Amino acid sequence: MSRSVLVTGGNRGIGRAIAQAFLDQGDKVAVTTRDGGAPEGALDVRCDITDQEQVDAAFKLIEAEHGPVEVLVANAGVTRDTLLLRMSEDDWDSVIATNLTGTFRVAKRAAKGMLRLRRGRIILISSVVALLGSPGQVNYAASKAGLVGMARSMARELGSRSITTNVVAPGFVATDMTDVLPDEQKAAYQSQIPLGRFADVADVAGAVTWLAGDGAAYVTGAVIPVDGGLGMGH
User: pLDDT tens, 202-212?
Assistant: First the structure.
């Protein structure tokens, strides 16, 4: 059965691959972007998740076109990398506002419809650095670690209504950003990964669609690493 799926930040990279994977399954997919560029066949909704009014307007449009959101993939995120002593208040606030508070905003709004339906899947996209840590990413790591506590609290609150909440934590993923890294730097990163390669965006999308599918109906509050073993044990 075709479901109403929302992927935030679904115009490029991991988010776009996730949106495409749901489209390929025949789902009705809406994608929020700031500047457009959703995959063909998806409902392209302009929305800055740091703005509550834009979030409310986006959900009204999606519900009118596709019905209540049954699967939410909270993927939208930003980075403002710099070392701790150089990190400004704005560097901190902007990353927390999008990655953590913005995710809270869309999850809260999606949960309202799911509670009425008495079913739903919420999947938050975190990162291996959430628990492994990363120099120069104090703000980003904090925001992504916060998603784990958020997801597990929601799993406990919403589980009685057949709503699951889980986290996917990707490691290094082959994207346009990693393609431009010097070969020596890529080799150094890959040497830390037991599987010896960066993830493909399809690897992450596969974990997300599994969590949203029938096979994961009894999985909630989990953190699923898609990192080639980089953060194992975390």
Answer: 999 999 999 99
